[in-house]
Design brief:
alpha+beta, 5-stranded antiparallel β-sheet, 5 helices
Length: 230
Protein backbone atom coordinates (compact mmCIF):
# COMPACT_ATOMS: atom_id res chain seq x y z
CA UNK A 1 0.00 0.00 0.00
CA UNK A 2 1.43 3.36 -1.02
CA UNK A 3 0.98 6.66 0.75
CA UNK A 4 1.03 10.08 -0.87
CA UNK A 5 3.86 12.27 0.37
CA UNK A 6 2.51 15.08 2.54
CA UNK A 7 3.66 18.57 1.66
CA UNK A 8 3.46 21.68 3.80
CA UNK A 9 0.65 24.04 2.92
CA UNK A 10 1.81 27.11 0.98
CA UNK A 11 2.36 30.22 3.03
CA UNK A 12 -0.50 32.70 3.22
CA UNK A 13 1.94 35.57 3.55
CA UNK A 14 3.67 36.99 0.49
CA UNK A 15 6.10 39.22 2.39
CA UNK A 16 7.41 39.86 5.89
CA UNK A 17 10.22 41.63 7.76
CA UNK A 18 13.18 40.04 9.54
CA UNK A 19 16.48 40.97 11.19
CA UNK A 20 19.55 41.48 9.05
CA UNK A 21 22.14 39.35 10.84
CA UNK A 22 22.65 39.96 14.57
CA UNK A 23 22.12 43.07 16.70
CA UNK A 24 22.83 43.85 20.36
CA UNK A 25 21.50 46.48 22.71
CA UNK A 26 21.93 47.09 26.44
CA UNK A 27 19.50 48.67 28.91
CA UNK A 28 20.03 49.38 32.61
CA UNK A 29 17.07 49.39 35.00
CA UNK A 30 17.74 50.00 38.71
CA UNK A 31 21.28 48.68 38.39
CA UNK A 32 20.19 45.50 36.60
CA UNK A 33 21.77 45.07 33.15
CA UNK A 34 19.54 43.78 30.38
CA UNK A 35 21.61 42.77 27.34
CA UNK A 36 19.38 42.02 24.34
CA UNK A 37 20.64 39.99 21.40
CA UNK A 38 18.51 39.73 18.28
CA UNK A 39 19.45 37.31 15.54
CA UNK A 40 17.86 36.12 12.35
CA UNK A 41 16.74 32.50 12.78
CA UNK A 42 14.86 30.38 10.28
CA UNK A 43 14.57 27.21 12.39
CA UNK A 44 14.07 26.32 16.05
CA UNK A 45 17.57 24.86 15.98
CA UNK A 46 18.95 28.28 14.95
CA UNK A 47 17.09 29.98 17.80
CA UNK A 48 18.14 27.45 20.43
CA UNK A 49 21.74 27.65 19.23
CA UNK A 50 21.66 31.39 19.95
CA UNK A 51 20.45 30.76 23.51
CA UNK A 52 23.11 28.09 24.06
CA UNK A 53 25.86 30.32 22.71
CA UNK A 54 24.87 33.24 24.94
CA UNK A 55 24.74 30.97 27.99
CA UNK A 56 28.39 30.22 27.32
CA UNK A 57 29.32 33.82 26.56
CA UNK A 58 27.49 35.26 29.58
CA UNK A 59 27.99 32.25 31.84
CA UNK A 60 27.93 34.33 35.03
CA UNK A 61 24.55 35.97 34.31
CA UNK A 62 21.52 34.90 36.35
CA UNK A 63 18.96 34.72 33.52
CA UNK A 64 18.99 34.11 29.76
CA UNK A 65 15.36 34.68 28.81
CA UNK A 66 14.28 34.09 25.23
CA UNK A 67 11.53 34.38 22.66
CA UNK A 68 11.37 33.63 18.98
CA UNK A 69 8.90 33.76 16.11
CA UNK A 70 9.48 31.80 12.91
CA UNK A 71 7.98 31.35 9.46
CA UNK A 72 6.32 33.69 6.94
CA UNK A 73 2.98 33.11 8.70
CA UNK A 74 4.60 33.39 12.17
CA UNK A 75 3.16 30.01 13.08
CA UNK A 76 6.07 28.97 15.36
CA UNK A 77 6.24 31.01 18.57
CA UNK A 78 8.17 30.10 21.71
CA UNK A 79 9.28 31.87 24.88
CA UNK A 80 11.14 31.09 28.12
CA UNK A 81 11.29 32.94 31.46
CA UNK A 82 14.49 31.06 32.42
CA UNK A 83 13.98 31.34 36.15
CA UNK A 84 12.23 34.71 36.28
CA UNK A 85 8.70 34.68 37.78
CA UNK A 86 6.28 33.06 35.34
CA UNK A 87 5.03 35.42 32.64
CA UNK A 88 7.40 38.29 33.46
CA UNK A 89 10.05 37.78 30.77
CA UNK A 90 9.46 35.40 27.85
CA UNK A 91 5.87 36.39 27.07
CA UNK A 92 6.55 40.17 27.20
CA UNK A 93 9.54 39.61 24.92
CA UNK A 94 7.45 37.57 22.48
CA UNK A 95 4.71 40.20 22.44
CA UNK A 96 7.30 42.89 21.71
CA UNK A 97 8.34 40.90 18.64
CA UNK A 98 4.79 40.15 17.51
CA UNK A 99 3.37 43.65 17.98
CA UNK A 100 6.28 45.62 16.51
CA UNK A 101 5.04 47.59 13.52
CA UNK A 102 7.41 47.80 10.59
CA UNK A 103 7.90 50.46 7.89
CA UNK A 104 4.37 50.22 6.46
CA UNK A 105 2.62 50.03 9.83
CA UNK A 106 2.10 46.27 9.60
CA UNK A 107 3.25 43.94 12.39
CA UNK A 108 4.93 41.22 10.30
CA UNK A 109 8.29 40.62 12.00
CA UNK A 110 9.39 36.98 11.83
CA UNK A 111 12.38 34.63 11.64
CA UNK A 112 13.76 36.43 14.69
CA UNK A 113 15.17 35.07 17.94
CA UNK A 114 15.56 37.40 20.93
CA UNK A 115 17.57 36.65 24.07
CA UNK A 116 17.77 39.03 27.03
CA UNK A 117 20.66 38.34 29.38
CA UNK A 118 20.06 39.81 32.83
CA UNK A 119 22.67 40.67 35.42
CA UNK A 120 20.87 41.32 38.72
CA UNK A 121 21.73 44.70 40.22
CA UNK A 122 20.60 44.05 43.78
CA UNK A 123 17.28 45.90 43.59
CA UNK A 124 14.08 43.88 43.17
CA UNK A 125 11.96 45.14 40.29
CA UNK A 126 8.71 43.35 41.09
CA UNK A 127 6.58 41.51 38.55
CA UNK A 128 5.38 44.68 36.81
CA UNK A 129 8.89 46.09 36.67
CA UNK A 130 10.24 42.91 35.13
CA UNK A 131 7.53 42.83 32.47
CA UNK A 132 8.31 46.42 31.50
CA UNK A 133 12.07 45.88 31.54
CA UNK A 134 12.03 42.78 29.34
CA UNK A 135 9.49 44.28 26.94
CA UNK A 136 11.37 47.58 26.68
CA UNK A 137 14.69 45.77 26.20
CA UNK A 138 13.43 44.00 23.09
CA UNK A 139 11.57 47.06 21.80
CA UNK A 140 14.64 49.27 22.20
CA UNK A 141 16.81 46.73 20.41
CA UNK A 142 14.33 46.52 17.54
CA UNK A 143 14.35 50.30 17.29
CA UNK A 144 18.02 50.31 16.26
CA UNK A 145 18.30 46.90 14.55
CA UNK A 146 18.99 46.59 10.81
CA UNK A 147 15.95 45.08 9.12
CA UNK A 148 15.36 43.42 5.77
CA UNK A 149 12.18 42.76 3.80
CA UNK A 150 11.55 39.29 2.42
CA UNK A 151 9.10 38.63 -0.38
CA UNK A 152 7.85 35.48 -2.04
CA UNK A 153 8.65 35.88 -5.71
CA UNK A 154 7.88 33.87 -8.82
CA UNK A 155 11.09 32.61 -10.42
CA UNK A 156 11.18 32.52 -14.22
CA UNK A 157 13.85 31.15 -16.52
CA UNK A 158 14.79 32.82 -19.80
CA UNK A 159 17.13 31.04 -22.20
CA UNK A 160 19.59 33.07 -24.25
CA UNK A 161 22.62 32.32 -26.43
CA UNK A 162 25.91 32.62 -24.58
CA UNK A 163 26.95 35.57 -26.73
CA UNK A 164 23.80 37.55 -26.00
CA UNK A 165 23.13 36.63 -22.37
CA UNK A 166 25.15 39.48 -20.86
CA UNK A 167 23.45 42.09 -23.00
CA UNK A 168 19.99 40.71 -22.24
CA UNK A 169 20.75 40.69 -18.53
CA UNK A 170 21.85 44.33 -18.69
CA UNK A 171 18.75 45.29 -20.68
CA UNK A 172 16.48 43.56 -18.16
CA UNK A 173 18.17 45.21 -15.20
CA UNK A 174 17.93 48.60 -16.92
CA UNK A 175 14.20 47.97 -17.37
CA UNK A 176 13.83 47.44 -13.62
CA UNK A 177 13.63 43.64 -13.72
CA UNK A 178 15.08 41.65 -10.80
CA UNK A 179 17.72 39.30 -12.27
CA UNK A 180 18.90 36.78 -9.67
CA UNK A 181 21.71 35.44 -11.81
CA UNK A 182 22.70 33.69 -15.02
CA UNK A 183 23.65 30.03 -15.30
CA UNK A 184 25.78 29.09 -18.33
CA UNK A 185 25.03 25.61 -19.61
CA UNK A 186 26.73 23.73 -22.45
CA UNK A 187 24.28 24.97 -25.09
CA UNK A 188 22.76 28.17 -23.73
CA UNK A 189 22.58 30.50 -20.76
CA UNK A 190 19.61 30.56 -18.39
CA UNK A 191 18.71 33.87 -16.78
CA UNK A 192 16.83 33.52 -13.50
CA UNK A 193 14.25 36.28 -13.13
CA UNK A 194 12.19 37.15 -10.05
CA UNK A 195 8.80 38.86 -10.31
CA UNK A 196 5.90 39.35 -7.92
CA UNK A 197 4.10 36.07 -7.27
CA UNK A 198 1.00 36.89 -9.28
CA UNK A 199 -0.30 36.16 -12.78
CA UNK A 200 -0.50 39.86 -13.79
CA UNK A 201 3.17 40.29 -12.85
CA UNK A 202 4.15 37.24 -14.92
CA UNK A 203 2.14 38.51 -17.88
CA UNK A 204 3.71 41.95 -17.53
CA UNK A 205 7.21 40.48 -17.59
CA UNK A 206 6.40 38.37 -20.66
CA UNK A 207 5.30 41.53 -22.46
CA UNK A 208 8.44 43.39 -21.43
CA UNK A 209 10.65 40.46 -22.48
CA UNK A 210 8.97 40.33 -25.89
CA UNK A 211 9.66 44.01 -26.37
CA UNK A 212 13.35 43.61 -25.53
CA UNK A 213 13.88 40.53 -27.69
CA UNK A 214 11.65 41.30 -30.66
CA UNK A 215 9.29 38.55 -29.55
CA UNK A 216 11.99 35.87 -29.54
CA UNK A 217 12.37 35.53 -25.76
CA UNK A 218 10.14 33.23 -23.70
CA UNK A 219 10.01 32.52 -19.98
CA UNK A 220 9.33 29.25 -18.15
CA UNK A 221 8.23 28.92 -14.55
CA UNK A 222 10.83 27.63 -12.07
CA UNK A 223 8.74 27.83 -8.90
CA UNK A 224 8.82 30.38 -6.09
CA UNK A 225 11.50 31.56 -3.68
CA UNK A 226 11.70 33.82 -0.65
CA UNK A 227 14.09 36.61 -1.57
CA UNK A 228 15.70 39.33 0.55
CA UNK A 229 14.93 42.77 -0.85
CA UNK A 230 17.84 45.14 -0.22
Amino acid sequence: MSHAESRPAPSRAVRYTTIDGEHRHELEVKRSRFITVLRRAETEEDARALVAGLRREFHDARHHCSAFVLGPDRDTQRSSDDGEPAGTAGIPMLEALLKREMHDGVADLSDVAAVVVRYFGGILLGAGGLVRAYSESVSAALGTAPLVRRERLRILGVEAPHAGAGRLENDLRSAGVEVLGTDYGPRAALLRIAVEDSEPAVAGFAERLAGLTGGAGTAVGLGTEWVDLR
